[in-house]
Amino acid sequence: MTANKTIRVLVADDHPLMLEGIAAVIGSQSDIELVGEAADGNEALVLFRTLQPDVTLIDLQMPNANGIDAVRMIRAEFPQARIAILTTYRGDVRALHAIKAGAQGYLLKSALRKELCDAIRALAAGQRYFPPEISAELMEYMGQDCLSPREIQVLKLIAQGLSNKQIAQELVLTEDTIKGHLRSIMDKLGANNRTHAVTIGIERGFIEL
């Protein structure tokens, strides 16, 4: 990208107010132009094919195809795509999924007014953009054990209010096996009890309510 070229941006978000806010911030910049708006991941892919933007901003949670799916689909067809995830969540697991899917940036919606343009310029210049608090959390959790698929399944059922006995029946396992999974979950998350484990699981993005 040359220094004089306007950075063309595509935004995918299913919240009209968020789109308006982003458009207003971008509209105040002479070197950045909003060229397209999508309401879901599938539409983002269609618009990307047509517009070939320099930078794409994608909401993490959207109907039809979520942000992670949209990143995967776009990067599968356009490996050179420069993409940042937009989210209200700081969960490190979501950030890791976004990075593995091919995103080069991760922006918290609460900080968009302050960081949006810096992030767009960084991505357009071929750099990555992760806010300090996201980078710190990634570093903090990178070395920790991740929950296994079965442990995530158990944690989801705990979050739904099921007892160990009910979870055992649901998963066709013994109650002792469920207790073992629960101990492992609490150890890995550093949780004090079931409720604390669910809270941490949501904060870190392992599960959603």
From TrEMBL:
Keywords on record: DNA-binding, Phosphoprotein
Domain Response regulatory: 8-124
Keyword Phosphoprotein set for record: yes
InterPro entries: CheY-like_superfamily, NreC/VraR/RcsB-like_REC, Sig_transdc_resp-reg_C-effctor, Sig_transdc_resp-reg_receiver, Tscrpt_reg_LuxR_C, WalR-like
Entry superkingdom: Bacteria
Keyword Disulfide bond among record annotations: no
Boundaries of every HTH luxR-type domain copy: 140-205
Residue(s) carrying 4-aspartylphosphate: 59
Transmembrane segments: none
Name of this chain's protein: Response regulator transcription factor
Native source species: Herminiimonas contaminans
